């Protein structure tokens, strides 16, 4: 009879194999390691987007002089939301605010490896991530313009 640990390890291996098949090796690594996960210590701007699926992606930005110095993400969603939020945060770092406006769901999808990097029914997650990024940029503009007017 297999031990509890053997059963757990076998189950984990199956989950990892399924994730590799779903997202490819690069997507699996991003899902597993979650780069940019969490709110950076100096992030003062946040945006969120919620899809019809119920997933919410949040993007956090630290911006100085219209340049993104750090970014992070959070989500309550599926693996596709996790890798999309992670990539959107990565794409934002070292970009100017103007450059952020050009990041779309398609940009995120291509950076992840193109249409085969996730199931077709999950590709809307890349748009959620881009929308959350734009909301965070809007938060920056709202707060900085408001401060300048005072």
From TrEMBL:
InterPro entries: NIF_FeS_clus_asmbl_NifU_N. GO terms for biological process: iron-sulfur cluster assembly. SUPFAM superfamilies: SufE/NifU. It holds the Pfam family NifU_N. It comes from the Bacteria. Residues 48-144 form the NIF system FeS cluster assembly NifU N-terminal domain. GO terms for molecular function: iron ion binding; iron-sulfur cluster binding. This is Nitrogen fixation protein NifU.
């Amino acid at each position: 009879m297999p031990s509890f640990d053997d059963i757990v390890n076998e189950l984990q291996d199956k989950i990892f194999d399924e994730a590799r098949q779903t997202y490819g090796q690069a997507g699996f690594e991003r899902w597993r390691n979650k780069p940019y996960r969490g709110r950076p210590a100096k992030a003062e701007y946040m945006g969120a987007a919620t899809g019809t699926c119920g997933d919410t992606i949040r993007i956090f930005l630290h911006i100085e002089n219209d340049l993104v110095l750090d970014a992070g993400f959070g989500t309550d969603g599926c693996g596709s939301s996790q890798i999309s939020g992670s990539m959107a945060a990565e794409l934002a770092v070292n970009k100017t605010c103007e450059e952020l406006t050009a990041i779309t769901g398609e940009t995120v999808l291509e950076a992840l490896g193109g249409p085969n990097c996730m199931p077709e029914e999950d590709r809307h997650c890349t748009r959620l991530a881009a929308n959350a990024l734009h909301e965070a940029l809007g938060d920056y503009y709202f707060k900085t313009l408001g401060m300048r007017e005072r």
